[in-house]
Amino acid sequence: MSDRLIYESRKSKVFYRTDDSGAAFAVKVLNFEFPTPDDISQFHNEFDIIEGLHLAGVRNAIKKTRENGRHVLIMEWIKGQPLKEAFRDKTGDIVDALHIAIAATSALAEIHENQIIHRDVTPNNFLVDLQERRVWLIDFGISTNLNLKQAFIGNPDRIEDTVSYVSPEQTGRMNRTVDYRTDLYSFGVTLYEMLSGEVPFTGSDAMEVVHAHLAQKPVPLIQKNPDLPQVLSDIVDRLLAKNADDRYQSARGLKHDLEKCLAAYEKSGADFPAFPLGEADHSSIFRLPQKLYGREAEVAEIIHAYDAAAEGARKLLLVGGYSGTGKTALVHEVHKPITANRGRFCSGKFDQLQRATPHFAFLEAFRDLIETLLTENEDVLADLRESLEEALGEEGQVLTNVLPSLEHIIGAQPDVPEVGGAEAQNRFHYVFRKFVRTLATVDNPLVIFIDDLQWADSASLDLLQALMSDPESGHLLIICAYRENEVDPTHPFIRTVDEITEAGLIPDRVHVRNLGEDDLIALLSDALSSTPEAVAPLARLVQDKTKGNAFFATEFLKSLASENLLTFDFEAARWVWNDEQIAQKNIADNVVELMAEKVRRLDPQTQEILQLAACVGNRFDLETLCWIADLDPETAAARLKPALAEGLVLPVAEPPVPAPSSWARTSDDRGARGIRPHAQRSHHPHRRAGD
User: Fold this and answer.
1) Does residue 285 lie within any of the structural domains?
2) What is the value of pTM for the model shown?
3) In the chain, is it the N or the C terminus that has fewer CB atoms within a 10 Å radius of its CB?
């Protein structure tokens, strides 16, 4: 047996190995002698995802083991070259490009039909044999079997080599779940590059590319390569739609159109007549559209409040409604237009069990904001550092005591005198106001979203009042969501709002109601690709069962699909259901009962690890969980997986990182992938799902 090193990075080495029989393998070795649980979990993820599948378009995983104390993956050896290299300077080879695109689409269809989302589709992660016109998909290190609502790019500079290929929802900045359609967007970028020689979006830094994915429309491919058929350019345009619902909904549907395009091109050249796209684009996976229904007026009110803040105003917006009506989803709907226009958005959520922690949600929000700020390039950070140092003076430690990650921007701060009681509170408010003034500017208006204000502590309410009464503050919008059924006129939050109003700042108010039957008809019509008339009876059933509560309605529909009461008929190419069976189905009376029932359906081991995670708090990391549960990372992750699938816990972005001046460039097995701090411990944080 002999090994030959073919690639080395900070995290791993890849060897070409032949055994005594002459069989060849790719051997990946984790470099770290003492890896963290997260390092081990991510390294093994590739094996765990594809083990035993033996798909024609995927490099097979053979074995995971340990050699010389290191974690090792034995993989199938593929004799091919990366797609990026194969099509460098070959934008005119349209026939070859279509053949390879069809083969690559088949590979994507295979993994999607096995409930795998790759999440890192780039031309470096396809190996191709141009002679045989074969394609293999590789590198499943960050792949998942779950639809995830998470911020994939906490820091886009960390994956600067792939940020050109991420979908808008994968940036974590548009309140959308990452499902298999993220791979179709990334494949659209890959096709664009194959056929034009360049990616659709570039920028001076990674953050600029992220904004382009969110807000800019790509130059049509045919303008970059006039020799292409118009239909092929249209196919790529469809793949690059910002909204996942406007893209192809299945890799099989995409493959059908590519095959039709190839046949027409080989017969008639580039001038063949256009044909309708998506005729075979059917998905058997039940998926609710990722947009809001019946909320147009409410969204417009929030945007109006933001526009006023962007012009220089100081605004307070109250969003009220019953539990489960979708207040949080409504506010996060404006996340994309805000960040796409260089606005700053951060959010925090009060926890019923964290009332003893002063300023809990505000500190969570500003930790989120600091993490976002650390994604900026060094020039932007240098300007921000100068502004903050000037504003905070010698009192910066007042903030770094409660926001330690702020030191990554402004550095260690001198000690401040110890004071107590009202003097300490007044000093905190004074410094925090200056902090917010510095961050909320004409170039970067600031939106702070604080959720579940009915559980706010008194210190947080005092801080809210201090920020709203600051006459020098502007370009600021604070949005407060609360459950109307849990407050009355004597509630501390309501009294605080009354005091703010009496001081002269009148809040804007948005009431979030239940969905009406017409809203449910529109939702089901889109979800089931059917006519409003056809889905109206089902909508009436859902309305009757859930009273239009958005959370209940969506959970009820998901349960219909999971229990095969709502199924896809392949012969008829449409969704079907039985009204009588659905009418007999029961649903919980309230959110707590519904969530408790979901937990009770989990196996005992998953329930136990959720109990331990809850002891940590509403956020926890895998390393801490492994320690308190006395489990290895693989076992802990496996026991968490059913809870992730049910949406009971959600992955969140990594914690803040040091400023770029202290970063070290690193890479993984695909080449340079960005920047990571030298000594930061690697965690995989999660949080419990809220409403």
Assistant:
1) no
2) 0.72
3) N
